[in-house]
Specification:
Layout (H helix, E strand, L loop, with lengths): L1 H7 L2 H24 L6 E5 L2 E4 H19 L10 H24 L6 H9 L5 E2 L2 E2 L1 H10 L4 H22 L6 H12 L11 H5 L6 H10 L19 H6 L5 H10 L25 H19 L4 H7 L1
Antiparallel strand pairs: 1-2, 3-4
C-alpha cells in the first residue's frame, strides 16, 4: 500500500497522507512509553513482581478446588473474600521463595516426566486411558494454554521435590553420632543372686494380727477391678415393630403432639446492593442516591438480573 502511494501520489497531497499515517503511530508510541500498565503489581518477592491478575487467577483456582472438593455443600458466602485473598497471597509468597530456592539448587523436572504425570491424573482419564479432549477442556476452563498449564505443573512438582527433600532429610550433629555409638557399643557387668521363696518361707507362720496389719498397710495390693451386675432386656426394632400396628390416625395424633420434632430452623439468604451516602451529604446527594435505588428496584421488578445490577452498581 505504501509503495502504491509513493508511486501515484506526488506533491503536497502525498506529504499530507504521510502525515495522517505518521501522527497516530507517533502518538501510540508515546502513550505506550508513558502509559501505566493495566495489570498493577500486587506484591514483590525478592525483586520478583506478582501482578493483581495473577493473584485473582490463583483465587479463582482456589475457589474451584473448594467447589470440586465440597460439591453441593459448597457455599461461597461462608468464605470471607478478604481472608481468602490473604491466604492465597501468603501461599504465592511461599511458592515464589521455594521457586527461587529450587532455581538456585538447579532442581529440574523433565518433559517426559511432566507428560507421564499429566496422563496419570484421573480427572483427565476416560475408561482408564488419557482423554485428550477432557484435558484440553479442563485447561481451557482455567484460562490457560497447554504450555502454561504444563509449566504450572512443572513448577508444582519442583516445589514438591524441594519440600520432600527438606522434610525427609535428617541432620545429626557430631555429638549425637558419637553419643549414639557410645551407647550402642557400651558393655556392663552385673552380679545377681537367686533366692527361692520356698526356702525363705520355711516354717514361718504369720499370726492373724500380722496378716491384718499387713493388709491394712497395703490395701492397694488386694484391690480388684470394679464389677457390676447388670440385667437388661434386648429390644430389637424388627421384633417390636412386628407386634405394633401403626394407623394413619395414630401417625397424625403423634405428629400433632410432637410438631417441634419435625420443624427445621428457618433459613434465609439475603443479598443487597449498597448505595452509600456520606454522613455530611447534602439533600441533592441524598435525592440522587434515592433515585438510583428506585431505579434499581424498578429494573429488578422488570426482570433484570440481580447479579448484573450488583456488578453495575
Amino acid at each position: 500500500m505504501l509503495l502504491a502511494i509513493r508511486e501515484k501520489a506526488q506533491g503536497w497531497f502525498a506529504w499530507l497522507i504521510v502525515g495522517f499515517i505518521t501522527i497516530p503511530f507517533a502518538l501510540w508510541g508515546i502513550q505506550s512509553y508513558l502509559g501505566v500498565s493495566s495489570d498493577p503489581v500486587a506484591l514483590s518477592v525478592d525483586g520478583n513482581e506478582i501482578t493483581q491478575r495473577q493473584v485473582e487467577q490463583q483465587v479463582r483456582k482456589f475457589r474451584d478446588r473448594l467447589r470440586n472438593q465440597l460439591g453441593k455443600a459448597y457455599r461461597p458466602e461462608l468464605f470471607d473474600d478478604k481472608l481468602l485473598h490473604q491466604q492465597v497471597i501468603e501461599q504465592m509468597i511461599n511458592d515464589k521463595v521455594l521457586s527461587e530456592t529450587a532455581d538456585n539448587w538447579n532442581l529440574r523436572i523433565s518433559d517426559d516426566f511432566i507428560r507421564q504425570y499429566i496422563q496419570s491424573i484421573p480427572y483427565f482419564q476416560s475408561n482408564g486411558k488419557f482423554n485428550v479432549q477432557a484435558y484440553n477442556t479442563a485447561v481451557r476452563n482455567q484460562g490457560m494454554t497447554q504450555r502454561s498449564f504444563e509449566e504450572s505443573v512443572r513448577q508444582d512438582l519442583v516445589m514438591q521435590q524441594l519440600r520432600n527433600g527438606v522434610a525427609g532429610t535428617a541432620i545429626a550433629t557430631d555429638y549425637e553420632l558419637n553419643e549414639t555409638i557410645r551407647l550402642r557399643d557400651q558393655e556392663r557387668e552385673t552380679d545377681y543372686l537367686i533366692i527361692s521363696g520356698e526356702k525363705l518361707a520355711g516354717d514361718f507362720q504369720p499370726s492373724d494380727d500380722e496378716l491384718k496389719a499387713y493388709y491394712e498397710a497395703h490395701p492397694q495390693i488386694f484391690m480388684v477391678p470394679e464389677r457390676v451386675k447388670v440385667e437388661y432386656i434386648l429390644l430389637s426394632p424388627d421384633v417390636v415393630g412386628a407386634s405394633v400396628e401403626v394407623t394413619e390416625e395414630k401417625l397424625h395424633a403423634y405428629y400433632d403432639q410432637h410438631q417441634d420434632e419435625f420443624q427445621a430452623p428457618e433459613e434465609r439468604r439475603v443479598r443487597h446492593i449498597l448505595i452509600q451516602v456520606s454522613e455530611n451529604a447534602d439533600d441533592a446527594a441524598v435525592e440522587k442516591a434515592k433515585a438510583k435505588i428506585e431505579d434499581i428496584a424498578r429494573r429488578l421488578e422488570s426482570g433484570e438480573s440481580f447479579e448484573a445490577l450488583a456488578k453495575e452498581f
